[in-house]
Every structure is written in C-alpha cells, then in structure tokens.
C-alpha cells in the first residue's frame, strides 16, 4: 500500500472551479456533498482503463493561498497531449502562469499554473525531443 489513489483540490467557489477544470481538462463531476457534509464534488478525470486517478473538489475550510506564497502542499500535475493548446485553455478560463513552460530534456515539456482558486498545478506533455 501507499500508492496515491485519490486527490482533493480545495476551492473557494465550487461552480467556478468545476467550470475551470471541466473546460481545461474535460473533467466531469459527481455531487458527493451528502457523504462529505460539505460541498464536495468527485472529479472523474478520464476513462477507468487509462492510467491516472480520480479525485474531488472540496470546499476550502480556511483562507485561500496568497499571491506569491510558496507552495505549502502537494502539486498535482496533469498529463496533456498538447502543451500549448492546454496552456491557452488555462489562460482563457482564468488561470495564470506560475512557472512557464520548460524542457525536461529528452523527456517532456513541463510548466506550472495557478487555477481560479489560487492553487498551483502542473501540466506535462511527454516529448522525447524536448530540449
């Protein structure tokens, strides 16, 4: 045991966050609020037969992260087919750049962004030609 099986993204505005992650990554959501006793939406991130995990958006229970605050938790990174197209969707849907696109030489393109709720996340496009 010890394998990551679920993630939670803390959000201040549930509808805004669902729109952001739905529009950018195509996630769908299931209302699990009755189980959690608070606004809590299961996030289906892809097909069950593909690598990856599902998670949830949950109502933030404290203050939102401050601008330019150092990361003080886990950062989720999403695999994407086209880095530049995904970055455009992030910006169009209210996200901002935290760390611009850079090469992991011979492996992938990587970068970090801030969602509409102030959370940092990454995107990763495999590319053996990245340099």
From TrEMBL:
Annotated VOC domain residues: 3-126
Pfam families: Ble-like_N (PF22677)
Transmembrane regions listed in the UniProt entry: none
InterPro entries recorded: Anthracycline_SecMetBiosynth, Glyas_Bleomycin-R_OHBP_Dase, Glyoxy/Ble-like_N, VOC_core
Protein name: VOC family protein
Organism: Lysinibacillus zambalensis
Lineage start: Bacteria, Bacillati, Bacillota, Bacilli, Bacillales
């Amino acid at each position: 045991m010890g394998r990551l099986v679920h993630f939670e993204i803390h959000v201040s505005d549930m509808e805004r966050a669902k729109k952001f992650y739905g529009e950018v990554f195509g996630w769908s959501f299931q209302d699990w609020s009755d189980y959690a006793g608070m606004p809590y939406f299961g996030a289906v991130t892809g097909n069950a037969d593909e690598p990856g995990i599902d998670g949830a958006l949950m109502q933030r229970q404290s203050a939102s992260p401050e601008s330019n605050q150092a990361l003080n938790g886990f950062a989720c990174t999403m695999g994407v087919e086209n880095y530049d197209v995904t970055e455009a969707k992030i910006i169009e849907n209210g996200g901002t750049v935290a760390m611009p696109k850079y090469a992991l030489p011979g492996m992938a393109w990587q970068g970090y962004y801030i969602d509409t709720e102030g959370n940092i996340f990454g995107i990763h496009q495999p590319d053996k030609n990245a340099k």
